[in-house]
Write a structure and sequence with these properties.
This protein has helices spanning 3-23, 63-73, and strands spanning 29-36, 40-47, 77-82, 88-95. By secondary structure, the chain is α+β, with helices and mostly antiparallel strands. The protein has two helices and four strands, in the order H-E-E-H-E-E.
Length: 101
């Protein structure tokens, strides 16, 4: 996997885990990273329902924006939002290599 893709996956997972801990402490979290046919990488972070709260010193709320910018820089797509059961899902899909590389 190219270095830039590794870094983006690491940062997306890191930020999503921080958000899960901040907004749903104690909720279970599942991280899945897998390669797909066609040279795509898919990264999903899914947390279950927790006690919705914002911890003290929670930051300024740029985590999702930052993830979207990082994934977009690799010509990928980020989706994030609540699940039907009260959890939250972040999914990043990006090519293994940039088209212009």
């Amino acid at each position: 996997m190219p270095g830039p893709v590794q870094l983006v996956v690491y940062r997306v997972v890191q930020e999503a885990l921080v958000n899960a801990r901040r907004h749903a402490p104690g909720a279970p979290v599942r991280v899945t990273v897998c390669g797909k046919d066609g040279g795509e990488l898919r990264c999903e972070i899914l947390n279950g329902r927790g006690r919705r709260q914002v911890a003290a010193g929670a930051g300024i709320g740029l985590g999702l924006v930052s993830m979207e910018e990082r994934v977009g820089a690799l010509d990928g797509e980020l989706t994030a939002g609540p699940t039907g059961d009260g959890g939250f899902r972040v999914t990043a899909t990006m090519p293994w290599e940039r088209a212009d590389a």
